[in-house]
Amino acid sequence: MTTRREPTARQTRLAVELRRLRDAAGLTARETAALLGVSHVQISHIESGLTGVSEERLRRLAAHYACSDNELIDALVAMATDRTRGWWEDYRGRLPTPYLDLSELEHHATYRWDVDFLHIPGLLQTEDYARALFSYVNPEFPESEVELRVEHRMKRRNIIERSHQIPYEAVIHEGALRIRVGDRAAARAQLAHVLELSEAGHVTVRVIPFDLDGFAGAGSAMVYAGGSIPKLDTVVRDGPHGTTFIDAEAQLSRFRTLFRRLEAASLAPERSRDFIHRLSKEL
Questions:
Q1: Residues 172/119, Cβ–Cβ less than 8 Å
Q2: Rounded to an integer, what is the distance from CA 159 to the centroid of its chain?
């Protein structure tokens, strides 16, 4: 197979899972290569995402690793044989790779959770809101670079607006709802957009109000994308040094628990809609 120059996050995740299976079996790359009759370099390339793997070879690997989790094996096969060239590939070389990796992750997600404290989650943003945000964060960017990012963000919304939508839940702090990223008109339109989307059956929006007692979770912003099975879930977090994709099972369990705590601390969906409606009237 052709060696890839830059594996996508999905290709890298497949490679990581295969490495985990080998480690759990207590085999080295050289031992695995000998079992398959290939070079250890080929195993190294597969486990770094630089080379793809066929269904037949993947199932042989799983057998050598004594993996009896058929659900996981089938999910990995689906990842290995997927030939989707998504809309995000049109932006390769034009936007940073994490933008494309997030789009690919969302496309394959079975559900999506967002938690945000400072901004409206990206999937709920209007064009004016996103434009004001990108312009402020990147003041040195020419208008064309800003518009490219706005365009990409609007296309990402298709996972909750397309005909086969996925379940989506957002927990938003009151602070994010009150901060005027744009002007008053843009802020009012943004809240109206969130309200409109929250009426859809597959979208749930919850609000954490300022006056909640005993709340110390303001550093818990996250994007949680459900995989085809729980072991293949992914958490995405933005930090000062870039975007991090988290897939370790223990960490995934921690973030699931954290999301449920934040969900329990927030207002119920109907009360959240009333809350956002009142805020919009204050603008």
A1: no
A2: 11
